[in-house]
Amino acid sequence: MLGTGNAFMPYGRYHSFALLDRKHIIDCPPTAMASLRRARVPLSDVETIFITHIHGDHVFGFPFMLLERRYISDRDMAKPLTIVAAEGVKEHLWKLCEMAYPGSLEEIFSTITWRNEVQGTLDCGMTWKRFRVLHDESVDPYGYHFNSGQKGSFVHSGDSGPCQTLYDEIAAASMAIIEMGHPEWVQSDHHHKPSTIQSLAERVHSVQLVVTHTYIDQPGVHTEVTVTDQYPVHPENVHHAEDGLCLTRDGGDWHLGRKRYGL
Questions:
Q1: C-alpha to C-alpha distances, 194 to 162, 219, 225, nearest whole angstrom
Q2: What tens digit of pLDDT does each residue of 198-228 get?
């Protein structure tokens, strides 16, 4: 878990950002390069980017990722990069690149392999299934189910409020990385809140729920708080992630390891 904060980046957290097997990432937020540097992962080692949706806190780091690869870590553009995303994301990311660094990223952008299919398999054997979730429709919101149908499969919710498609996928998984972007008093169904995480945890009590994209400051990081630095009390299958948390899989079981780093 390279970052666990929401768009407002609470104290002690970078933007929500997950790294799989040290070579695949979910989204590319503004803090992506800082997160990868902190984890000692060369940017050119990233082979795949899975895009959930195109809000700024999920994709605005993309031009910086390409810039660094093109001029620092992969000057010969020898390392392949695949982007798995819905139709229309390619055009959006190209606009970002042209706005950020006009004339500097055409070559490396042209080397990207784009995969728009709803279901697919990477060369390493990991599979994905993309499914629609409940969020701002203008940003094409999706979640992903990785290795669906296999022991130890896991879901990434992207940004999503409570919805049946997401919950059906989570019920069929062993672990889910799920956002909780709003405190209880915010009137919106586009994100999860403590009460909806509670309801989900009771509904899928055998699934490990790892909470990310949170509005909660990392406890003890700062004397003043943005909203709160207190985690809600949730059932035992709910884990409030902090930056650097390492998740490992043993067969069909997921385990929370020690944090690899902190702020």
A1: 12, 17, 18
A2: 999 999 999 999 999 999 999 999 999 999 9
Residues counted in the chain: 263
**Model's pTM, two decimal places?**
0.96
CA 215 – CA 234 distance, rounded (Å): 16
Question: Rounded distance, CA 211 to CA 242, Å?
Answer: 9
Q: Can you list the domains of the chain with their CATH numbers?
A: 18-256 (3.60.15.10)
Residue 225 buriedness (CB in 10 A; 0-12 / 13-18 / 19+): middle
**Which of helix, strand or coil describes residue 260?**
coil
**Is residue 261 over pLDDT 80?**
no
Q: How far apart are CA 25 and CA 85, in angstroms?
A: 12
Residues 6 or more apart from 58 whose CB is under 8 A from it?
Answer: 15, 16, 27, 28, 29, 51, 52, 158, 159
| Arithmetic mean of pLDDT, 127-156 | 97
